[in-house]
Specification:
Number of helices: 11
Shape: globular
Helix content: 40-55%
Radius of gyration: 19 Å
Number of domains: 2
Largest sheet: 4 strands, parallel
Strand order of the largest sheet: 3-2-1-4
Strand content: 5-15%
CATH topology of the largest domain: Rossmann fold
Order of helices and strands: HEHEHEHHEHHHHEEHEH
Number of strands: 7
Distance between the termini: 43 Å
CATH superfamily of the largest domain: HUPs
């Protein structure tokens, strides 16, 4: 299928729903889906964002702005508690987390008289370890981007054509993905990571992660951006600032950012840490 045919298939699949709620994070996929849902369904489309300690404050601000620019109705669900199974951080943490979040979106949609809930999973997502996808299937969450066969690069191109500012936005994942499996997740750790990443982005880094290992920060910058950090003055400043956020040690992953790097321990049959 051509890109235009996939786009048409996506819209034709959404139109019969009449009303639909989109689990909205402000990332590339869910933003594009919100725009299409609003284009097709108008006021029948609803964006729902679950605001938890795992959701970066910068992403929350951006999600609000994006929903406003699209014109879609937007509901924020406050969820300040990290549920026990999620906090324990097992290898299927994402399943438990998504089960909680999707259930909250389903309830919020029902309150608005909406029975169809959509997520932004795309055709590329099957290639990574994503236990959260099972939670979506169990709760009847539809994935129209995936069903239309749209890959990430294609979603970016369609977003560009629509003038969405997220078309070239770096990949995003919740803050819990910065904590190695088996290491407990706490609100304090997530705040440390969030502050550290926001600071590093202020230095001009676009694609960056701060993985937390106990009280050590391991910085992953995009391979092409690593040079921005490799100056003595910058390294000293970064070390001091991250330690002011609560880290005892600060180091850098030499190969740079790799999506899902903490999943390597699963592939190797070992434990992260």
């Amino acid at each position: 299928m051509t890109l235009e045919e996939k786009d048409r298939s996506l819209r034709e699949g959404i139109r019969p729903l009449g009303k639909a709620a989109v689990a909205f994070s402000g990332g590339v996929d869910s933003t594009f889906l919100c725009r299409v849902a609003h284009d097709v369904l108008g006021q029948g489309a609803l964006a729902v964002t679950v605001v938890s300690p795992m959701f970066p404050q910068g992403e929350l601000r951006e999600a609000r702005e994006l929903a406003g620019a699209i014109g879609i109705r937007h509901v924020l669900l406050e969820d300040p508690v990290i549920e026990g199974k999620v906090a324990a951080n097992p290898k299927d943490r994402c399943y438990h987390c998504k089960k909680i979040e999707f259930a909250a979106v389903v309830r919020a949609a029902a309150d608005q008289g909406i029975t169809h809930v959509l997520d932004g999973s795309n055709a590329d997502d099957a290639s990574d370890y994503r236990p959260g996808a099972a939670a979506g299937r169990e709760l009847g969450i539809a994935s129209p981007l995936r069903d239309a066969g749209l890959r990430k690069a294609e979603i970016r191109e369609l977003s560009r054509r629509l003038g969405l500012p997220t078309w070239d936005k770096p990949a995003f994942a919740c803050l819990a993905s910065r904590v190695p499996y088996g290491e407990p997740i706490t609100a304090e750790k997530l705040r440390m990571v969030d502050r550290a990443e926001e600071y590093l982005r202020s230095l001009g880094l676009r694609q960056v992660r701060v993985r937390i290992h106990d009280r050590m920060a391991r910085i992953e910058a995009a391979p092409e951006e690593r040079g921005k950090l490799l100056h003595v003055e910058v390294l000293d400043e970064v070390s001091a600032r991250l330690k002011s956020f609560g880290f005892l040690y600060v180091c850098m992953e030499l190969e740079g950012y790799t999506m899902g790097s903490l999943n390597r321990a699963i592939a190797e049959g070992g434990a992260n840490g």
